[in-house]
Design brief:
Layout lengths: L12 H20 L14 E6 L2 E4 L4 E10 L5 E10 L4 E6 L4 E5 L2 E10 L4 E9 L7 E12 L4 E10 L7 E4 L3 E5 L3 E10 L5 E9 L4 E6 L14 E6 L2 E10 L5 E10 L6 E12 L7 E11 L43 H23 L1
Parallel strand pairs: 2-10, 12-20
Antiparallel strand pairs: 1-3, 3-8, 4-7, 4-9, 5-8, 6-7, 9-10, 11-13, 13-18, 14-17, 14-19, 15-18, 16-17, 19-20
Length: 370
Amino acid sequence: MPRTHTHRRHRPLGLLLAASALALGPLAGSAAATPSPEPTAEAEVVLEATLDPRNVFASPGSVVPLEATVTNTGTADMTGGSADFEVTGDATVVGVEPGDGCEQVSPQRVECHTDAALAAGESATATFEVQLPDNVSETIVGDATLTVAGDNGGEATATSILEVGPPDGYHLRVTAPASAEGAAAESVDLLTTVSNDGGIDLAGASLDVEVPDGATITGVTVPDLVPGTERPDEGCAIVTPRRLECHTEQTLIAYDGYYEATVEVLFDDDAPAGELGVATVRGAGDQGGDDTVDTAEVVLTVLEGGGTETGGTETGTETGGDGGTAGGNELPNTGGDELADTGAGRLPVLLAGAVLLAAGGALLLRTRRT
């Protein structure tokens, strides 16, 4: 018969208690942990600023509006604030709307302040008027910057680029070097240009150059120099020794056409060293009135030292060699027809050379004057 175990198996009491403790542990812990409420965030002012357009592109001299917008994206109302608007380059601020609380502290800066509140989620706008320079085209002249700050917090900045495009109507521009320098009796070349950077073709244009006392106009490389003392229909004429007048009947096409002349200017022989004066260059279109008139100036300077070469003369005394006086004991040979080697025999040759150099210098100056 099979054997049957009738006694019970004893379970260790420690294991049962441990299991009970594990089972009760999480329950006790979960009952004790109570979630604490999250701290409430403090309300604050957060500002955003924009300028529209972000890139200004307009013709020279234009007055362009920039709309400034300030938005309170925070959770607290702004209780007053300031707005400063400033432009750089040759641009100027010419107006603001609305202008209450604004002051123009310089031609390029306006400062505004308000005590009005700007509620959370609300926006405020203002329009600043900017005038672009009229003496440049197709270039970036600077930027416009809006800086805003709330009295009780929050600040922001926005910027727009200011670019001058080509003029819409008639517009002519004269360019020339800012300065030119040379010695007395020397010539300098002035490259002068009349260009049509407007939006309308120009049928014909003139270019005049006038130099100060102490300089004369001796010619022009391009275009052709025409005989006479009156402005020609095509080409250039020296109407006085100090004034050149040029004209072309060709059409200077819009935005791209130009007419140029390289003028030769000769400084007088006795022109004093230093700044001589200003050469004036004036261009004008045959149409367009004052919109096609422009001028430029060239500062002329005479350098010291003159325009002649000063290579110097040899002044040293030869004391060596066979016929010299080395040692101080040998006397010059004065006998017979032979001249002593004292330098006297070379004097006529040196004088003849000096005469030739002087003649060459006179020829050079005469050539430069023609």
